[in-house]
Design a protein that fits this description.
This protein is mainly α and 190 residues long. 55% of the residues lie in helices and 0% in strands.
Length: 190
């Protein structure tokens, strides 16, 4: 759906209203590099609030339940959506194109990173290295355990990449750190 929406915008006169640019020097290599994490921050915000809407009791069973049929997710469930949810998810690309200047290669990198993180979140298995728990990154980034808790409990841990929206909105599952530590301690037993 993201690809379809991207193709529809780029191959129609709508492209003239976007901030898509084709020469890196039009902005700078620095902007090219930072546009990707900025896009991820915008995407995480968009995803968090869209996800909260999808969990509304009047919407959930008609739209988002398709995705939640995987209580213990797998990589195959990462893009298993009802068509309405897929459209909602896919609208991030047009939103980004209308809000910030993006080079096509930055869009492809953004989509690849998003794809990899989404697969990781739906592994149903934690692969983060042992050092991750004691790094500053643990307080910022989501893990597979983080999103797996969302699938098993059907609420909380709504964000995609970063933990800050769940922390700010008090929707982070209070069992997350305890469960993460238990899983990692079992993984790294000597």
């Amino acid at each position: 759906m993201m690809t379809l929406l991207l193709v529809l915008i780029v191959n129609t006169p709508m492209v003239n209203y976007t901030q898509l640019y084709d020469t890196i020097s039009s902005y700078s290599i620095v902007w090219f590099i930072i546009s990707i994490p900025i896009g991820m921050l915008i995407h995480d915000t968009y995803f968090y609030w869209l996800h909260r809407v999808l969990h509304h009791k009047k919407i959930f069973r008609h739209v988002h339940l398709v995705h939640h049929q995987s209580n213990n997710p797998s990589p195959f469930s990462s893009y298993s959506f009802h068509i309405l949810e897929a459209i909602g998810e896919g609208l991030i690309i047009p939103l980004l194109l209308f809000v910030i200047p993006l080079h096509p290669i930055a869009i492809y990198i953004f989509l690849l990173v998003s794809f990899i993180i989404n697969i990781y979140g739906h592994l149903g298995y934690e692969i983060a290295p042992k050092w991750f728990r004691t790094s500053f990154l643990f307080n910022i980034l989501n893990t597979s355990v983080y999103h797996n808790l969302h699938h098993s409990k059907f609420q909380g841990n709504y964000s995609l990449y970063f933990r800050f929206w769940d922390k700010i909105m008090h929707t982070e599952n209070p069992l997350y750190i305890e469960l993460y530590d238990e899983i990692q301690n079992n993984r790294f037993k000597n």
